[in-house]
Structures are given as structure tokens and as C-alpha cells.
């Protein structure tokens, strides 16, 4: 595998020429055997603006091919001087292993500015019971939210329910211990493999754990954030619903899509021309069955925005001004966005001949 990490040994800077940030890595911290945190230097021109829980898109050249992946901030914009993300290895994964194996301080990474809706507005007058459900690398945006709430909301309490395989795979273990010195913050560990060193529920997250966590909380004050592997998220979301937490108080972020492009195989999906409006330009091209509107646009050398390419992150989001598309995943969009006609071209296939999508 040939690696090329944008090794520009230059001052940390923002670049507007290509529309991306070029951020110097201040430090790479090994969190566990299979996870690192990447701390970025702030650009000389001014600090990067981001909200707790949002994500950067890292763009790297791996094996001669440009790869983009989303990584949530683990830092708090209120507390931490440097923005940081945490990357956990995925078996056989291109970017996560590349970064874990190769990245070191002093290198420069090309990234897209932070975006994302897995966030909340903080206010000193809030008095909330934030309950955060994380699994594995899903801790990353939750850490950002927890630190921010502790700093910004003196009357808010935070409970983190954190599921992992074993005690040695717990990311931020010592930071979490320190944070618990503040009695507004507590952690409930759930470990598949029992641990002698750590008090934890053994096995998987269950309704019983959820009910126990909620038992001493005033339900109207409860607001939940859920991020982790699909099955863990399903248990948390269904369990919170069963416990009476309204769905609009349960925010979720998925890192992996469970949808399949097989879902886009149907007689309705045939080759059709689409019109894309982006950056004040209008493009027309024909999308064949088996390819998405984004894929074909990129093949046509149109510099469309994207990150996850799986319908989760909304980096490619556009408004469908006319016509109808079939999306194989819409996890990234809220009900309101769907009602307003927003679509995700990375998972969209044209269903009609009159499609016009405005991006940006
Ligand atoms: C909004 C958003 C935020 C994210 N934030 C983070 C973060 O903070 N930290 C982090 O480590 N990752 C995060 N991810 C996941 C990340 O973007 C990559 O998908 C992940 O690092 C795998 O990329 P890869 O190139 O190594 O694997 P790929 O080469 O893309 O995938 C290899 C295989 O692993 C599967 N796979 C991909 N991701 C996962 C996963 N997370 N768990 C299990 N299987 C997987 C794929 O389906 C594929 O079969 C986030 C994703 C999204 C959409
Ligand atoms: S690129 Fe992430 S939703 Fe389309």
C-alpha cells in the first residue's frame, strides 16, 4: 500500500484556493491499542469554528486514491484550545488503519470544515438531564457534548452509558475518571467481557440498564444522544421510547449505514437525465441504474461536495426542486428536511425525468 499524507511541512493555515482546510497535526495521542486522537493546530488566520458533536471530513491519498471519511470532534469548542478527532481502527478499513499506522505530529491533513446536526445549543439557564449512550468509537461526539455541557450548563447533569467489548477498549478511560470528580457527571460502563478492574454491567446494553439509568431522573428534563454500532443504537432508541422519552428528545448519529444499494434495484430505476445546480452552474448528465446521482456527477468531473457517501453525514445535501428520487438511506436527514424536499445525492437514484437538485 502506498501512503501519501499531504506531508506539507509548512505553517498551519487555512486555504481558500481549493476550498479545504489544511491543518497541521499538533499531536497524535494513542488512546487504546486501536484508536488515536488527532489534535489539530489552530490556523494562524483564526480559530476553527465548530459545534460540539459535529464532524470533520479527512481527505487523504491512500494507495494513489483520494479517500474521504467523516470523524467527529472529541474536543469541546468551549474547553479545548485545539480541535481534535478520534479514529478507531475498523478491520480492513482503508482510512482508519492508514491514519492509525502512519499519522504523526507535524504533518498536514486536508480536511473539510466541520458540519453536522448531532449537536445542541448550550445555555447557562438550562437545567437538563443529558443521557449519552455511546458504543466504541461512538464516544467521540458524546465526549465533545459532555465536556461542553459541564462547562456551559452549571445546572445540567450528564450520565454517559458507554458500551465496549472490554475494559482495555475504553477510549478516554482516564479522562472519564477525572471528569467524574465533578458530581454532575457519571459513567455507567457496559462491558461484553467482564472486568476485574472496573465496575460495569456485563453483557450488552439492555432495557434494564436503560430503566435503571432513567430511574432517578425527571423525565421532562431528559435529553438523550445516541452514537455507536447499529444494534446498540437500536436497543438504546427503542429502550428510551419504551421508557417514555419522546422521540424528539433522542438525537442519534450513525457511523455506518445498514442500507444496501440492492434496495435501488427496481424496474422504476432506469437511465435518466438529471439537472444539478451547484456553485451558480447548471449541469446535466444521465444517471444509469446502479450508480448514484453523486457518483455520476463526480465521474463527470463536477466538484460536488461529499464525505461519507452512505447517506449519513449530509455533506452532499441538496434540495430537490423538481422530480422524485429514491434514496437507499435517509438517516442523515430530519423529518423536517425530508418534508422540505432535501435529498442526499450520494444515495439517490432518479425516479422521474424532470429531476432538478440544487446543492449548497
Ligand atoms: C457522521 C460520521 C461521523 C463519524 N465519526 C467517527 C469518529 O469519530 N471516529 C471513528 O473512528 N469513526 C467515525 N466515523 C466512521 C468513519 O467515517 C469511517 O467510516 C471509519 O473510520 C471506517 O473507514 P475506513 O476507511 O477505515 O473503512 P472502509 O474501508 O470504509 O470500510 C471497511 C469495512 O468496514 C465497514 N465499516 C465502516 N465503518 C465501520 C465502523 N465504524 N464499524 C464497523 N464497521 C465499519 C464498512 O462497511 C466496510 O465493510 C464517522 C462516520 C460518520 C458518517
Ligand atoms: S456524502 Fe454523506 S450523506 Fe451524502
Structure description:
This protein is an alpha/beta fold and 360 residues long. It has three domains: 113 residues, Translation factors (Elongation Factor Tu (Ef-tu), domain 3); 125 residues, 3-Layer(aba) Sandwich (Rossmann fold), CATH 3.40.50; 99 residues, Beta-grasp domain (Ubiquitin-like (UB roll)). The protein is built from seven helices and 21 strands. The strands form four sheets. Strands 1, 2, 3, 4, 5, 6, 7 and 8 form an eight-stranded antiparallel sheet that branches. Strands 12-11-10-9-13-14 form a six-stranded parallel sheet, sandwiched between helices. A five-stranded mixed sheet has the order 16-15-21-17-19. A hairpin with a 2-residue loop joins β3 and β4. The chain binds flavin-adenine dinucleotide and FE2/S2 (inorganic) cluster. FE2/S2 (inorganic) cluster (FES) binds next to loops.
In short:
The chain has 360 residues and is of the alpha/beta class.
Number of beta-strand segments: 21
Task: Characterize the biggest β-sheet.
Answer: 8 strands, antiparallel
- Mean pLDDT across residues: 93
The hetero molecules present are: flavin-adenine dinucleotide, FE2/S2 (inorganic) cluster
* CATH third-level topology of the largest domain: Rossmann fold
Question: What top-tier CATH class of the largest domain fits best?
Answer: Alpha Beta
Residue share in β-strands? 25-35%
Total domain units: 3
In whole angstroms, how far apart are the ends? Answer: 35 Å
CATH architecture type of the largest domain: 3-Layer(aba) Sandwich
Described by the principal axes of the CA atoms, the overall outline is globular
Given the structure, what is the number of helices? 7
Poorly predicted parts? 1-13
This entry's quaternary arrangement is single chain
| Helix percentage range | 10-25%
Q: Over the alpha carbons, how many angstroms does the gyration radius reach? A: 21 Å
